[in-house]
Structures are given as C-alpha cells and as structure tokens.
C-alpha cells in the first residue's frame, strides 16, 4: 500500500498513537520514535513552511504541528517528568521513603522565616542562632551555610529544629516552583508596632498554598508602641486564629532584638509540628534531599549546602545534585566542624562536587561514581537541549548575523557571570583580545561573580545582550525570565571554548567578503546582428569555460572596454546551453551591451565568498 502523501512527501502516518518526546527534541528524535527517516520529516515541515534541520532542537509547537500532520499524539515531557524517568531508568525512586512504618524515625521540622520587610526576619534568625541553649558546648553558629539546626528542650526532651537561613518567601517560592518542598513549618514574623502589611499577607498565602502550618512570631514587643493584640485581630481576618481565641495557630510574642521569649517560639514550633505533622523519615537508606545554597569557593571548589530529607549522607558517598556530581569529600556543619554523617533534616555543607548545583535542585546518593556522572551528564545535556529549543525566533548569537546583514547591529553585547573574580577577569581579558576587524565590536556591558540572576536577565533583555555563564548557573526565576524574555544564556566551563564560540559568532556578524574567480575566456570571431536581441557574438572558447548567467567583461587590445556585464544568453548551434568548454564555438549576448568587435575577448567570472579563517 502506498503511504499517504504529506505536502508531496511520503511519510507513513500514525493512527493517533501517543509518542513522548522530551522538551527540546529534534526531528531526528521524532523520526526515531516513529521509525522513519529524519530527512523526510524535514521535508514535511518544509512543506508546512517551517525550515529546520534534522538535528536542531525544535520548540513544543513545532513538535505538535508535526504530530498533527502525521497523526500522532505528541506529548512533550516536562523536565520534572523527564527527570523522574531518568532516575527510574537507574532504578532510583526519588522523594519517597523506603521500607515500612517501622523503618521510619522522627525527624526535626524544617522551618522558613517569612514576613514583611523590616519586621525582623534576619534579626530573629540571628537571635535563634545565639539562643541555641542545649548545644552550648558547640559554641555559636559561626558559618553561614544557608541553613542551621538548633536544639531546645521541650517537656524535658531535647528537640532539634532546622532553620532555612534565607529569610523571606522568595527562596521558598523559588524552590517550590521547582517542585522542591523543603519547609515543614513557616514562621510568620509580624512587627507588633507595624501590624499586618502587604508582604505579611503574601507570605501567609504562600505558606497556605504549600499547605505548610504557620507559627506567628509577633516581634518587637520591646517597643513601647507595640500592640500584639492588634496583630492577633488582624491575622484572624486572614484565617489565622490564635489558640487563645479558640483557633489552632500559635502566636508567640518575641523580641528578636532583646532576645525575649526565643525559647517560647522554639517550643511553639515543636508543639505545632507534633500537633499537625507526622515528621518521620527513613534514616537507613541512601540519602536524598535538596540543595539549599551553593557557590564556588576559591580554595575548596564547588560547595553546596544540602538538606538531607531522608536517609543518611556520609563522607565518601557518591552523589548527584542537579547537574553536578561527585563524591562527598568532607561535610561541615554550621559550626564549621567536620561531620561524618548527616541524618534527616540536617543541613550540611558538602565538598567534593564537580559543579555548582542550583538552589532547589534535588540531590541523591547513588551506588557509584559512574552512575552519578551518567545522571549528571544526562541532566546537563537535557538542560542544554531545552535551552536550545526555546531559541527559535529569539535573540541568539546567530541572530546577530542576520541583523548585521540588514545593517541593524554591529555590536555584540555580553554580560559575563563567573564563579570567581579571577575567571571573570580572565574571560573578559581574553574576549577583549578577539580581533575580527573594525566592522564589528564586542562590548561587555556587565560582569559579576555568582549565579545568573533575574536582574542580569532583565538587563540582557533590555539591551539585547547575551549572557555568558562561566561555571555558574541561573538562580531563582532567572531561567524562567530568560525563556520568557528571549534572552540567550550560554554556559561554559572552559575559557577557550567560550572564546572560540564568541569569535565564531563575531565572524558570522561580518559582512561576507567576495573575491573574483576567473571562469573562462572566449574570442569573438563573428558578429550576428539581430533586431530582436541585439548583437550576438560568435565566439571560440579559448580557455576555461563560459557559463550562462555569469559576470563578464569585454577586453579590446588588452584594455577593459566594459566591465561587470551579464552574460545573458549562451548557445551552441541552435540550442540554449548552460556551459561551453574550451575549444568549442558558441554564440552569446551581453545584456544591454552591443558595442562588440571581432577580435574582442569576453572574459567571464563569478564572485565567490571568501571563507574567514
Ligand atoms: P527583615 O527585613 O525582616 O529581615 O528585618 P531585620 O531583621 O533586618 O530588622 C529590621 C529592623 O528592625 C532592624 O533595624 C532591626 O534591628 C530591627 N528589629 C528587629 N527585631 C527587633 C525587635 O525585636 N525589637 C526592636 N526594637 N527592633 C527590632
């Protein structure tokens, strides 16, 4: 049976089967899934007015169009689903405790402090750090690692609480947006002299949306104009009814500044956890959790604070954290002390990763280094493809070339972000040395150390710049905003690679240069006059070959009589031909030029683009 034709191209159609493709798949991936030749899909799309190559990543829409055309139900798989599938292929089930009820052990609650600006979130986190009564011998918490654990005494028992040391709901929401929920309880800080403010309500809504119980810290009660009762009344209107009014939310009056009643707050957190949450995890499995904070340390390489959510993390474990992997070389706690193991709800600083994971990336311990590397590499490749796919019709290095051709731009703007000031300087220095002539320029409009932020992306969007990330990754909503704004972010970990690609892009921005290539010569032996088409030169090709539609010039006694003529028609005997070789006779005309004489030489040439070295 004949395959049905699509736009003149024959490709076997499906009967509505579902095919799953990762975001950023290419036509080759598509073709593989349905068992056809990728080239035929290129043609199908071409017939539909889309020009893409077989290996180029295409966006969701193109995959859908192709699916519709070929009668397949295309499902573009989200990065989260894809990651789950990736892990499944390694037989890793992320996010659930192994074993039965009896394998589960209680774990401390993980707390995020939220609230309106200036209501005392930072101060409160500081106060809690120094009120770490039970752990006195451990000394104060000296290291800022993004999270810390304190101990308190409730009903004669020592209880631990983990605090995420980044105040505010931005980090909380950014993590949740990535499918990572680290927080068990939210402490809502409300200044008693200021009352409920817009961000109080915002924070409250975020906590509610995440189904996280709230403990209200009514702060600044040391202030004479503080009115804790008013705060209770205000929050009741938002559905947070204090226990003393018959509700189920604990309100604690504190002063972060005077360190008043911090113990009371800690106790309320523990009691709230006991009352409304069943916080247990299996400590006897391979560790899993999320990365809370990460950066590149000059001396120690990538360092990441991870929160263990289940299992026990040990020095020597092979782990994957987002697109980073490695073996845990050492772990430090918030006191800067080395620890050998970290149990559920414990935050630790991990040394030994190959790269810097993003905040909110999941981490897991796998059986060996090889598996860790494989998973990390697959994730990295996937991120790259997905980024490529989103590029269609957007500002990319390649775009510059097209704009350049239209005379629209001759400057490539860059924003450099790197893991250290040294690498950023080195990169900028190397970039400044790229020399491709005077026609195009490169300008670094911003540079900095650290993750690629939303601000970087907004600047890039506003100025049509490309962001270069050297050993750093986007943080928070930066990727999302970049996608939306059409900002290209390129990642590198080797300087020369960055230089090579940018140099290539700059060369692409140059107007093409042409050189003349001699094709052939013919001597005019006879002239035929035609009233319709003018003078026809009867020639003998003396060298090379004469081609129709090539450029020509006319020489007489060694001098150029006319240049840049077009060879309009070319005949042998009575037939129109495209080419006549050396030693043959032909008839030709020069468009719009009749002043030819016997003995003139017609020299033909074409303009060829000179490849740039
Ligand atoms: P954040 O923006 O919520 O992190 O607020 P900060 O922790 O930075 O505190 C804002 C201001 O309020 C700072 O000047 C603090 O010193 C002050 N502050 C915080 N807690 C208290 C408190 O309990 N009493 C008084 N009087 N001032 C406080």
Helical proportion, percent range: 25-40%
Number of helices: 15
The total domain count is 5
Name the CATH superfamily assignment of the largest domain.
P-loop containing nucleotide triphosphate hydrolases
Coarse morphology = elongated
Low-confidence blocks of residues: 1-7, 390-395
The major pleated sheet works out as: 6 strands, mixed
Short description:
The protein is of the alpha+beta class and 613 residues long. 28% of the residues lie in helices and 33% in strands.
Task: Kindly describe this structure.
The strands form eight sheets. The protein has a six-stranded mixed β-sheet with strand order 7-8-6-9-10-11, sandwiched between helices. The protein folds into five domains: 5-77, no CATH class; 108-278, Rossmann fold (3-Layer(aba) Sandwich), CATH 3.40.50; 288-385, Elongation Factor Tu (Ef-tu), domain 3 (Beta Barrel), CATH 2.40.30.10; 394-509, Rossmann fold (3-Layer(aba) Sandwich); 513-610, Translation factors (Elongation Factor Tu (Ef-tu), domain 3). Residues 1-7 and 390-395 have low confidence and may be disordered. Helix 11 (397-405) runs parallel beside helix 15 (495-509) and helix 13 (454-463) runs parallel beside helix 14 (478-485). 28% of the residues lie in helices and 33% in strands. It has 613 residues and is of the alpha+beta class. It contains 15 helices and 33 strands. The two termini are 52 Å apart. It is elongated. The structure holds guanosine-5'-diphosphate. Residues 115, 117-123, 167, 219-220, 222-223, 255-257 line the site of guanosine-5'-diphosphate (GDP). Residues 115, 117-123, 167, 219-220, 222-223, 255-257 line the site of guanosine-5'-diphosphate.
């Amino acid at each position: 049976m004949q395959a049905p034709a699509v736009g003149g191209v024959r490709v076997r159609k499906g009967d509505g089967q579902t095919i799953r493709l990762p975001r950023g798949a290419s036509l080759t991936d598509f073709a593989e899934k349905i068992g056809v030749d990728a080239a035929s899909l290129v043609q199908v799309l071409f017939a539909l007015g889309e020009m893409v190559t077989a290996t180029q990543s295409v966006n969701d829409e193109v995959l859908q169009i192709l699916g519709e055309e070929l009668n397949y139900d295309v499902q573009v798989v989200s990065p989260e689903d894809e990651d789950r599938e990736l892990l499944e292929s390694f037989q890793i089930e992320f996010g659930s405790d192994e074993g039965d009820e009896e394998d589960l052990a209680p774990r401390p609650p993980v707390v995020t402090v939220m609230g309106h600006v200036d209501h005392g979130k930072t101060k409160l986190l500081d106060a809690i750090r120094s009120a770490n009564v039970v752990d006195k011998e451990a000394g104060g918490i000296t290291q800022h690692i993004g999270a810390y654990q304190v101990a308190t005494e409730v009903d004669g028992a020592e209880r631990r609480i983990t605090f995420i040391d980044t105040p505010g709901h931005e980090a909380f929401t950014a993590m949740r947006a990535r499918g990572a929920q680290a927080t068990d309880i939210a402490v809502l800080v409300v200044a008693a002299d200021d009352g409920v403010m817009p961000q109080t309500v915002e924070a409250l809504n975020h906590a509610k949306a995440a189904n996280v119980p709230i403990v209200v810290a009514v702060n600044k009660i040391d202030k004479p104009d503080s009115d804790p009762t008013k705060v209770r009344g205000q929050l009741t209107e938002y559905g947070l009814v204090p226990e003393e009014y018959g509700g189920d939310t604990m309100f604690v009056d504190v002063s972060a500044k005077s360190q008043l009643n911090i113990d009371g707050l800690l106790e309320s957190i523990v009691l709230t956890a006991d009352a409304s949450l069943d916080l247990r995890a299996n400590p006897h499995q391979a560790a899993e959790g999320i990365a809370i904070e990460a950066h590149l340390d000059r001396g120690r390489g990538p360092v990441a604070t991870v929160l263990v959510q289940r299992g026990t993390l040990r020095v020597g474990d092979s782990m994957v954290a987002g697109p980073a992997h490695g073996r845990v070389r050492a772990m430090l706690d918030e006191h800067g002390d080395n620890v050998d193991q970290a149990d559920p709800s414990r935050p630790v600083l991990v040394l030994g990763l190959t790269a810097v994971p993003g905040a909110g990336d999941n981490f897991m311990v796998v059986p060996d280094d090889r598996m860790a590397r494989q998973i990390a590499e697959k994730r990295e490749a996937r991120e790259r493809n997905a980024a490529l796919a989103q590029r269609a019709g957007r500002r990319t290095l390649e775009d510059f070339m097209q704009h350049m051709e239209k005379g629209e731009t001759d400057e490539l703007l860059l924003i450099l972000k790197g893991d250290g000031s040294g690498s950023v300087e080195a990169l900028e220095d190397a970039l400044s040395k790229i020399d491709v002539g005077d026609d195009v320029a490169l300008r670094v409009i911003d540079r900095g150390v650290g993750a690629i932020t939303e601000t970087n992306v907004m600047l890039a969007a506003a100025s049509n710049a490309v962001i270069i990330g050297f050993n750093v990754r986007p943080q928070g909503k930066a990727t999302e905003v970049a996608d939306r704004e059409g900002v290209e972010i390129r990642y590198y970990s080797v300087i020369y690679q960055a230089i090579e690609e940018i140099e290539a892009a700059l060369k692409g921005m140059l107007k093409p240069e042409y050189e003349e290539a001699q094709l052939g010569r013919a001597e005019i032996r006879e002239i035929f006059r035609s009233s319709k088409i003018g003078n026809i030169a009867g020639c003998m090709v003396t060298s090379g070959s004469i081609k129709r539609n090539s450029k020509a010039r006319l020489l007489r006694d060694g001098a150029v009589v006319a240049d840049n003529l077009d060879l309009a028609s070319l005949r042998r005997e009575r037939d129109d031909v495209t080419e006549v070789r050396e030693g043959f006779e032909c008839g030709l005309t020069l468009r719009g030029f009749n002043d030819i004489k016997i003995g003139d030489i017609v020299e033909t040439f074409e303009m060829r683009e000179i490849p740039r070295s």
